[in-house]
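FORM 7B: Structural annotation worksheet

SECTION A. Query
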Amino acid sequence: MEEDQDKYLDEHIQLVKQEAFFMKRALENFNLKDALRHSANMIGELRTSLLSPRYYFDLYMQVFDELRVLEQHFFEEQRKGRRMKDLYESVQHAGNILPRLYLLVTVGSVYIKTHEAPAKDILHDLIEMVKGVQHPTRGLFLRYYLSKMTKDKLPDLNSEYEGEGGDVNDAINFIVQNLSEMNRLWIRLQHTSSHGDKQKREAERNQLRVTVGENIVRLSNLEGVNLEVYQENVLPRLIEIIIKSNKDVMSQQYLMDCIIQAFPDEYHLNNLETLLETTTRLQANVDIKSIFINLMDRLAEYASSPDTEIEEEFNREFDIFGMFKNNIDKIMAEQGQSFELKKLLELQVAFLRFSLKCYPTNLKYVNTILESVVGLLEERENAGTQFDQDSLKQIEKLLSYPLETLSLAILPMTQYPKLLNYLPFIMRKRVSNRIIQGVVKSRKKLDSLEVVEQLFKFISPLLKEEKDYVEGEDYEFEDEQQSLASVCHLVYNEDCTEYFSMLKFMYKQFSKGGVRRIKFTYPSMLIAVIRFGRFFSVAEEKGDVTIQMIFKMYPEITSQLGPHYPELTLNLYLECILSMNEIDTEREYQETAYDLATEAFMLFQDELSDSETKFAAIRLIVATLCRLTVFDEDNIDTLTANAAQYSAKLLKKPDQALAVTSCSHMFDTESIQEGKRVLECLKKALKISNNCMASPKNLILFVHILNRYLFYYAKGISSIKSDEINLLIDLIKDHISSIENEGNGEMIESAKQYFELTKADVEYRKENSESEIDYSAIVFE
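SECTION B. Predicted structure
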């Protein structure tokens, strides 16, 4: 019972503290005989059989702390002239073997430190003496104490104990012998536990594994254990200990893991075949998968280190990938049916990560691993196995990891889409999104139809609603489609025929996505086609493509968006017209451009209802018309007249005034110079603004129109006279005065500031302008 264990531990600790107190008092009185007697009584509490290993460890630590005091006293005694040899012999007269050996180890530690005898001799004596305790728990902790007390007193390379005290081989012999004995006792511990439950017994043993594994850590920390020594003297002896533990799975598993974690990666790399061969000699129940994963993870990290010469280390005469592959295949063949699918897939994931880090450019290795996984899944599927969520997550990892380093290079992999099909829709979509993000992030050009076709096979879950389609969150959908749309801008090839073929293929695939998806993909598609049009117009070799084929795609793409996204479509129509204006300098396709403009006006009139949206749209239309040279006089007159008409019919009067003011620019362009119509627009805008003065905040409209007058006056348009500008200035001043008299001053503050800035600009031009424009005729005062 847990309560009984607490009780027993408290009783033993109280006795330990009591004897420790008397031991310390005897030491203070220089009574070594009594001190040794009390210390032996204190250590005697470790003879108990009442405590479980976990509680025994707590008791051991209490005794260990007290023995440090005794060790320090022994060292002080030596400094005062006492010979450690005498003390070493005297403690051997303790009545009970366990206290005798603890005291012997304590004195032996000081004995080595004082250099009165060679370290190797004392170490050999101690390792032989502790064999006298064969009880699993007591013997294990006694040897653990020996390991702790001698860890800094080994005759290692360049240590103070080397030479007469021995060499690194003596240190290795001592540690290996101690490890072998501790491992044997640790295995026996399972048969002496107080628990009848095997699972609890194993848990108790597992808690003590560090006491055994610390010996391997000691070996790895020895300066003298270089690659050659490890290969010839250390690893073979460690493997021998592991193989001799052939009846204990926990021991073999743990010691293999310790070797992998403790020693340098370089050592593993140079002894890989030996390590892998050892795994084939382990007990059938040993989790070889986790051993392989740990080993591959270590080597993969080593390969990715900036200090590692990967090419030199990983491409030698021996085939590291092949060694792992052969052993993994052997595991799959011999134990595959008894393993959970998840565990086998975890092994393949680790193997894949290892391959990607060690051989980052070898696509064959990656495809080979994926082929093995596909074969495994086919076998399990034929056997009627249902893939659980954990297994599916491992499959997703197998598909995701190559994207991080290979990006577009995954496209030729024949096994990739096969593996992708084993995932449910949500996971397929997630992998597809990672593929797209990887492609976009890499910024590598999609330069052939074959590459584009292969890519779109991989990302089909993003393109359309498949049979097992599951609706996701709106924000996720938008992010996915925006990433997908970005792919259009990566298409490029010097050959116009190949370039255009890729664009047409993409358009065909995007058209399968439905109304919800084309909102994101079609605009990018259209911009990509427009960019190709510019490229085509200056290309020397046109191939099989004609400009008519390109222009034909403009209405094809935009017309499908119109009924669903009119505002977006109107903007795209204007982009198309600007593109044609740039490319078609001979006006051969102005009718096509005119049809697009007509469609834009129809969308404006029939589909847009929000006043703010219509105001923004008409200003965009006007701005576009100001740049066009693709139309002849009749067509441009019709379009500008329509724009002016729609501007004057906006719902809100202030919007009308601003839009009509903008229309004035349509008659002062590179191709149109009609000052009279400019003045007509400005006068019409003033008339509309007068009707808006029921609200004082609309005063700013007059200031805005004034600035348009000044703009055209500065350009020297003859129809814009200074008299009309002065009349407008007086009108603004009158409005300001009347509004202030009515107590509405705060409502016109921004208009007044705008007016003052305009005045300051005119005054500056009067003084500094070198143009022929007479600003002196404009009067603000």
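SECTION C. Observations
The chain has a mean pLDDT of 89. The two ends are 104 Å apart (CA to CA).

SECTION D. Sign-off
Analyst initials: ____
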